[in-house]
């Protein structure tokens, strides 16, 4: 049966990226095909991000072997049935200085796991899979080598730059059949859109994690990391949602080599881009606490033959939770931390915001009536690329002024032409989802990755029944083993305001 959805994941792993990719690969074959994973710089530099992608696949190979040997359902049909392509992309922003989030994710993007657990990390030979051959190499030999190496693997390495691989996938598939889920800086997408705009617009939808609308930013008071890390790229992608992209295109940078500046889009385009945005406002409402993570995974790593996946996740999640705790103690306004029960000494309350996995969950459950857009959607959300203190800010018009009908162009009372009838962007902004609040989504995410968690009979806590219903893919028996109803109080919103 053909998958109901096909996606490209553009990613910079990164801890929550890892959970997003696991969630996508854990889908049933008929639910989802991950056609391509295109890698970008972001949380860490691009080669480290790529190594983490390779590590995911190698750990999953070990995990599936372990599941077979232990009589567990294998799962991860997104890997075993489709064998995704992996392509390497941008190693820095279009024009800005490189900013990474290694202060949070660690220098390798996964809290130092490659040093602390080298037996769970790819051997250095993985790099050869992505190396370009010397010009005089016989192509057939390279292909043979690639296929030989990849034969043992669960992904297919690409030698084509990620943005060109994105374009190839969109070109070779029917329009409106492939969705791009972008969970890092938008550099790869901006390069693709600039190189062949009409082919890029064949995408069904771009779903992206980024921005902060009514919340503070997480790298500056107003900017979220993915948008800030390449604000020009983000501005160019957002501009494609406009009936008149030139009205919101970023100004041409003056401090760079003009030959490095991407060209404007063609003046006439066949249609606007459908862009669905998951800003911090919604992603921070979806968390995974250390208490829940430990409760679900600890029994799996205490077995005589422990689960490789649970072991690997634990190896970077424990230092990550410790980092989150330290951020909580030193700052009351970090977007990455959540306090529960009001007790900062409760180590189980440290929680990771599941920014990126939420975008994949939207793909998997998009038919749920509980997904909510903002009342204004599609709304005019623009990216500032030049402000001294506001670069990377996602700006909305809060003036509540009426749009001018049938008129275009800035006015003295409307600089930036926010009120013109065809100017401005048209972004769909998500504000609510079916698993919103506390730990509901974190639990389901782990249950999808490790489905036999549900059948092992480990008691675990859940926060509330009242806001939940079982999604299409989970039966009501999924939660039959819950034992304790806790009083978990998420303070995310309070910390942000
Ligand atoms: Ca990311």
Task: Present the secondary structure layout.
Layout: E1 5-11, H1 15-25, E2 32-39, H2 46-69, H3 77-80, E3 85-88, H4 102-105, H5 113-116, H6 139-151, E4 156-157, H7 162-172, E5 178-182, H8 187-195, H9 197-200, E6 205-209, H10 225-229, H11 231-239, E7 275-278, H12 280-283, E8 287-289, H13 290-301, H14 308-330, E9 351-353, H15 355-364, E10 372-373, E11 382-383, E12 394-395, E13 428-432, H16 440-449, H17 492-496
The structure holds calcium ion.
> What is the radius of gyration?
22 Å
CATH class: Alpha Beta
CATH topology: Inosine-uridine Nucleoside N-ribohydrolase, Chain A
Helix/strand order: EHEHHEHHHEHEHHEHHEHEHHEHEEEEHH
Q: Please list the strands of the largest sheet in the order they lie side by side.
A: 4-3-2-1-5-6-7-13-10
Q: What does the main sheet amount to?
A: 9 strands, mixed
In whole angstroms, the N-to-C terminal distance is: 47 Å
Structure, described:
With 497 residues, the protein is an alpha/beta fold. The chain has a single domain, classed as Ribonucleoside hydrolase-like (Inosine-uridine Nucleoside N-ribohydrolase, Chain A), CATH 3.90.245.10. Helices cover 33% and strands 10% of the residues. The strands form three sheets. It has a nine-stranded mixed sheet with strand order 4-3-2-1-5-6-7-13-10, with helices on both faces. Helix 1 packs across helix 16, helix 8 packs across helix 11 and helix 13 runs antiparallel to helix 14. The termini are far apart. The C terminus is likely disordered. It binds calcium ion. Calcium ion binds next to loops.
């Amino acid at each position: 049966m053909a998958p109901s959805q096909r996606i490209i994941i553009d990613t910079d792993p990164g801890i929550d990226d890892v959970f997003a990719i696991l969630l996508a690969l854990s889908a049933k074959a008929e639910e989802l095909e991950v056609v391509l994973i295109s890698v970008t710089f972001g949380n860490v530099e691009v080669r480290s991000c790529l190594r983490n992608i390779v590590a995911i696949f190698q750990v999953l190979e070990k995990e599936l072997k372990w599941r077979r040997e232990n009589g567990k359902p294998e799962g991860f049909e997104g890997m075993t049935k489709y064998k995704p392509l992996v392509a390497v992309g941008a190693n820095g922003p279009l024009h800005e200085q490189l900013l990474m989030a290694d202060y949070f994710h660690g220098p390798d993007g996964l809290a130092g796991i490659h040093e602390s657990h080298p037996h769970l990390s790819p051997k250095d030979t993985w790099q050869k899979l992505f190396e370009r051959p010397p010009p005089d190499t016989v192509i057939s030999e390279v292909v043979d080598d690639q296929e030989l190496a990849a034969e043992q693997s669960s992904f297919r390495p690409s030698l084509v730059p990620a943005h060109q691989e994105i374009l190839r996938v969109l070109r070779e598939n029917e329009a409106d059949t492939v969705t791009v889920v972008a969970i890092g800086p938008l550099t790869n997408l901006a390069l693709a859109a600039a190189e062949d705009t009409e082919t890029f617009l064949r995408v069904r939808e771009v779903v992206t994690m980024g921005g902060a609308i009514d919340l503070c930013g997480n790298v500056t008071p107003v900017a979220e990391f993915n948008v800030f890390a390449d604000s020009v790229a983000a501005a160019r992608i957002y501009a494609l949602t406009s009936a008149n992209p030139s009205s919101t295109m970023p100004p041409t940078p003056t401090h760079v080599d003009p030959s490095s500046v991407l060209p404007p889009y063609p003046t006439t385009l066949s249609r606007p881009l459908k862009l669905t945005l998951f800003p911090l406002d919604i992603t921070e409402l979806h968390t995974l606490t250390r208490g829940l993570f430990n409760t679900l995974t600890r029994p799996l790593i205490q077995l005589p033959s422990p689960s490789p996946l649970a072991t690997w996740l634990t190896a970077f999640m424990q230092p990550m939770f410790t980092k989150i705790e330290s951020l909580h103690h030193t700052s009351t306004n970090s977007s990455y931390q959540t306090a529960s029960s009001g007790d900062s000494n409760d180590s189980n309350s440290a929680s990771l915001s599941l920014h990126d996995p939420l975008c994949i969950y939207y793909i998997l459950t998009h038919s749920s009536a509980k997904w909510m857009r903002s009342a204004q959607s599609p709304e005019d959300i623009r990216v500032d690329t030049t402000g001294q203190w506001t670069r990377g800010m996602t700006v909305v018009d809060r003036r509540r002024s009426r749009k001018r009908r049938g008129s275009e162009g800035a006015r003295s009372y409307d600089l930036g032409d926010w009120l013109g009838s065809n100017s401005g962007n048209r972004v769909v902004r998500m504000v609510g989802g079916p698993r919103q609040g506390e730990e509901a989504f974190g639990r389901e995410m782990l249950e999808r990755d490790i489905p036999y968690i549900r059948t092992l009979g480990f008691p675990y806590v859940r926060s509330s029944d009242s806001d939940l219903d079982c999604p299409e893919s989970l039966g009501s028996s999924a939660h039959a083993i819950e034992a304790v109803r806790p009083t978990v109080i998420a303070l995310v919103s309070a910390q942000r305001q």
